[in-house]
Amino acid sequence: MKNFLFALLVLLSLNTFAQKTFVNSNKEKAKKIDLIIGKYHDYNLFNGSALVVQNGEIILQKNYGKADMGWSIEATSDTKFRIGSVTKQFTAMLIMQLKQEGKIKLDDKINDYLPWFSKTVGSKITIHQLLTHTSGLPNYTDFPDFKTKMVFENLSGKDFAVKYFKDNLGFEPGTKQNYCNTSYYLLGLIIEEITKKPYEEVLKEKIFDVIGMKNTGIENPKQIILNDAQGYDFDYDGYQKTDYINIKTAVFSAGGMYSTANDMRKWDDALYTNTLLNDENKKIYFTPSLGDYAYGLSVQKHQNFLGSGKNVTTMAHSGGINGFSCNIARIPEDKIYVILLDNTRAGKRGGQLEAIIDDVFRVLYNTKVDLPKPLIIFEVYKKMKAESVEKGIIYLKELKKNKFDAYNFNGFENELNRLAYKFLGERKTDEALKIINYAVSEFPNSSNIYDTRGEIYFNKKDYNASKKDYQKTLELNPNNDNAKEMLLKINQILSPKN
């Protein structure tokens, strides 16, 4: 009996020690993650709600900065943020639920449900191809009119699609993968056609109400949403209010949702159960197609992940819409879930939300992680503003050569492009041209950079130079509809019809 009691005490002591070690380990991880995200926040690279879960336990749940800068209201885990394209996994879930109910098949065609859509392509593109971005349809949010006209429309989804969607395929359906908001907009219309209910009502009935997501919905421009975050853009000089967009019409089922950190945790929990889908259909939902894209999620297998010795699967997606960025990532093998909700469009500043998640993963898997660094372009802009663009570019070259390790060069191409647009928006065309010329020297194979320079030359009325750059844009990216339309305009200017 004494030996039994002794063994029991030893076992209890070991269990207590293991529990304390686990708690201490989680506390240490929380401190490291908080320090890292706090630095990103200090460098104007994140502002909003963060939630980190491992093995089903919350490691970190914290908010950084203001939900409303005008009223100085702090963000909370129940603050509602636009989540942009993270909406796609919910749209895909509704399609899979309808499949499970026998109301749709994945090899059905668009025209089986939307007979008004172009017969040329609607009779050949399948539901599966819409879900996996392999339809070949042009991405409507890349159209030149999107930011200047389409975002202000107040139409029904069908009327919006009829008015704006094009059927000029970029490739044969199923042969390639190219991210396409058009596809997910059409999926929302198909959901409405099958159910005979508005998309947002179907979401509520089949997902939100089922798993208790009480603070999630589709944004309506006339609706007052309690506890919602205001959207901002960082413009190098500081934060400013974001531009207007009619979310319900302009993005709809491709990216129209808002949610909270707490509600998104409920969504992740539900994906481990059969509450929304059975095992057979969940397997289809999570299986990647071309480009590692499954149904609303990018799914990748990793061997020896981050040198941890573990083989894992990452499931991730980003979202970005006026004034907001969102990133989610999950690793089912270790029940890891990271959600970042930002109301300053931080995702456009060098892809920093992905960088934050990568750093969080390194902490969770006990691998080496460095503290974040300030974005190089912010430092260079100060020099440009204080002195000149020319001296700023010289300064940039010096920093790249002598202090490269002190700065963050993530998204360098995109940041140069954004900075050029800042000066262009201020009608400082010559300064914008100097910046984009430097960008061309750094990224000679970037179609986006040539597209921007073509626009700058067009503004300067140097149409021959503009034409040359738009031609180069199409050479590098044959699917660039903006370049095609601009070349038509330029040709009409250079060779007007009598």
TrEMBL record:
InterPro entries: AmpC-like, Beta-lactam-related, Beta-lactam/transpept-like, TPR-like_helical_dom_sf, TPR_2, TPR_rpt. SUPFAM superfamilies: beta-lactamase/transpeptidase-like, TPR-like. GO terms for molecular function: hydrolase activity. Keywords: Hydrolase, Repeat, Signal, TPR repeat. It holds the Pfam family Beta-lactamase. TPR repeats lie at residues 447-480. It comes from the Bacteria. PANTHER family: BETA-LACTAMASE-RELATED DOMAIN-CONTAINING PROTEIN, D-ALANYL-D-ALANINE-CARBOXYPEPTIDASE/ENDOPEPTIDASE AMPH. This is Serine hydrolase. It comes from Chryseobacterium glaciei.
